[in-house]
Fold this protein.
Amino acid sequence: MSPAFQAIFWGFVSGGALVIGAAVGYFTRVSGSVVAGVMAFGSGVLISALSFELMEEAFKEAGLAAAATGFLLGAVIYAAANHLLAIWGARDRKRSGTQQPSEEDQSGSGVAIAVGALIDGIPESIAIGLSILHGGAVSVATVAAIFLSNLPEGLSSSAGMRKAGRSAAYVFGVWTAIAVACGLASLAGYAVFDAFSPFIVVATTAVAAGGMLAMIVDTMIPEAFAEVHQWARRFVVLGFLVSFTLTKITG
């Protein structure tokens, strides 16, 4: 399997978890506490992956200054984009309750939620492509972490979309399009950055990590804490440990 094909394939696989989660969240009645618990677990998984896979690689290859600068830049870019989307009605796009506005409540919120979901997935997908550039093969730990976090994201968000009165065509149209975009973003992470110096590649990895952490704090942790409170930290710790173990086993 060529590296380019690996990039797009694993990008589709990780993005496909959003569609699977969306189907569960839209067609079944999963309790809010279960959704939140899985969301907390997924948060821990991602935090571990970005710490021990992405940031560690950036630090080794580019040094602390470049890794830290890229990380902060990624967080700032994501926070700015998320702020604009929140104004347009996408603040609660990962919530499973009645927090999401309907189109009648706020015109344009449907588009904002779709764009927000896309922005949430892009840094993760680019990181998959970059991991192939780093090691010549995909990072199993990174793909597994993104897949495990995307399941509860799709589940929670689609449950909220259903309660806001959005149609199945809208929900699955959004998540299918994002799954395709994840595959293309992963391919871009490999193909576009293949022409750049190793320093630029690892600095971009740090940018992706910063965007991922900002996304976790802005959209995943609030859903987890709102529903399961003190249990949220336990699920986060468990997710972190599982991902850390996977990193060491596959590394």
